[in-house]
């Protein structure tokens, strides 16, 4: 296959990881074209707001992608690259952190417990993937918690990691440009790529895929997440199966690598596009976090939290799972990689690997014509 010109649309974790993996093959000349780039904070741009961490939620038995590939496999294929970054590449802003998953029997059937279904299992598929997985003895559990597991996870400082992905892409010759497309076929026009022609487009527009011409995937909906970033150190990562404050509210705590602060969350409000912080939800988030993790304030109240900022992000959830498919749209080969919802980081390498395979297939088919 001769050298091919590829445009990746979207510079979130999906687009940047896909561009990075493609850029390792000298046969591709890549441009990342996006409305938003690392450093931007916008409600349309989900990746900077993420925690982000590795907490597999999907079950290989129940969540199958459109192409029939188990979504759990994408999470599985992502662990080794993230583990490598945490161990050997501190400049990427990824570090190891003990993670405890706390389960309350009364949450069964709630939106949050359903979202976290596999994560809450006493014997999840990923127990043989992550280090140090164990069931926590019942006598060690805090009041109100019925069961719990722990394992070594990673927490990602997105403010470092996203620019690191850009830097790795730049090192491999990837070009970056700001662009807004009304239709996905516009990304295939000769003016987008410095080579003057485009052989294939990769669509990593996340929530934007719901409105982007030529795609307009109505299965893509936002799942609104609200967080509080504080300077207090939690010392570990915690996630609870649910809350007493509403079916679509959540309780989780994680400390980002390299001084990135501690994330207190959250919510999982499907269909909610609201970009502004809800002050009353912020108070509930902080109260829940301090209640489950007294180490944050030394056992004191939320007034002892040192707040960096409040944030709102919209997870790009796709009913039916992440879309990794190839198709021809108005004569342009397009490979889709979007809709990972809250699993964008923890499935990023697995999804990108699957997308790269489809790029190869589409371009080989094209070269045979």
From TrEMBL:
Reactions that this protein is recorded to catalyse: a D-alpha-amino acid + O2 + H2O = a 2-oxocarboxylate + H2O2 + NH4(+)
Main EC class the enzyme belongs to: oxidoreductase
Protein name: D-amino-acid oxidase
GO terms under biological process: D-amino acid catabolic process
Every FAD dependent oxidoreductase domain range: 6-357
Positions annotated to bind D-dopa: 342
Family annotation (Gene3D superfamilies): D-Amino Acid Oxidase, subunit A, domain 2 (3.30.9.10), NAD(P)-binding Rossmann-like Domain (3.40.50.720)
EC number: 1.4.3.3
Superkingdom of this protein's organism: Eukaryota
GO MF, one example: FAD binding
One GO cellular component term noted in the UniProt record for this chain: peroxisomal matrix
Cofactor(s) needed: FAD
Family: Belongs to the DAMOX/DASOX family.
């Amino acid at each position: 296959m001769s050298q091919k010109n590829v445009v990746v649309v979207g510079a979130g974790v999906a687009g940047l990881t896909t561009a990075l993996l493609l850029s390792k093959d000298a046969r591709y000349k890549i441009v990342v074209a996006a409305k938003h780039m690392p450093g931007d904070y916008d409600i349309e741009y989900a990746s900077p707001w993420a925690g982000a961490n590795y907490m597999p939620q999907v079950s290989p038995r129940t969540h199958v992608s459109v192409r029939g590939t188990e979504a759990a496999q994408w999470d599985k294929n992502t662990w080794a690259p993230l583990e490598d970054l945490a161990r050997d590449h501190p400049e990427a802003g990824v570090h190891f952190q003990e993670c405890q998953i706390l389960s309350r029997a009364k949450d069964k059937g709630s939106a949050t417990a359903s979202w976290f279904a596999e994560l809450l299992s006493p014997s999840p598929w990923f127990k043989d993937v992550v280090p140090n997985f164990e069931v926590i003895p019942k006598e060690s559990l805090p009041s109100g918690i019925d069961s719990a597991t722990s394992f070594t996870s990673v927490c990602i400082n997105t403010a470092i990691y996203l620019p690191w992905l850009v830097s790795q892409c730049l090192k491999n010759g990837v070009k970056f440009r700001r662009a807004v497309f009304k239709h996905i076929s516009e990304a295939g026009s000769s003016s987008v790529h410095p080579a003057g022609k485009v052989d294939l487009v990769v669509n990593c527009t996340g929530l934007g895929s719901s409105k982007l011409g030529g795609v307009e995937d109505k299965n893509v909906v936002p799942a609104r997440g609200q967080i509080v970033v504080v300077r207090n150190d939690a010392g570990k990562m915690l996630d609870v199966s649910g809350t007493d404050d509403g079916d679509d509210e959540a309780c989780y705590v994680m400390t980002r690598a390299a001084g990135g602060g501690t994330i207190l969350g959250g919510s999982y409000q499907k269909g909610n596009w609201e970009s502004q912080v809800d002050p009353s939800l912020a108070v509930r988030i902080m109260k829940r976090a301090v209640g489950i993790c007294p180490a944050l304030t030394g056992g004191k109240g939320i007034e002892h939290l040192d707040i960096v900022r409040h944030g709102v992000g919209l997870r790009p959830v796709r009913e039916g799972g992440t879309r990794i498919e190839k198709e021809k749209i108005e004569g342009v080969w397009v490979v889709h990689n979007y809709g990972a919802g809250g699993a964008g980081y923890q499935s990023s390498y697995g999804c990108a690997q699957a997308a790269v395979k489809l790029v190869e297939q589409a371009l080989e088919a094209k070269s045979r014509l």
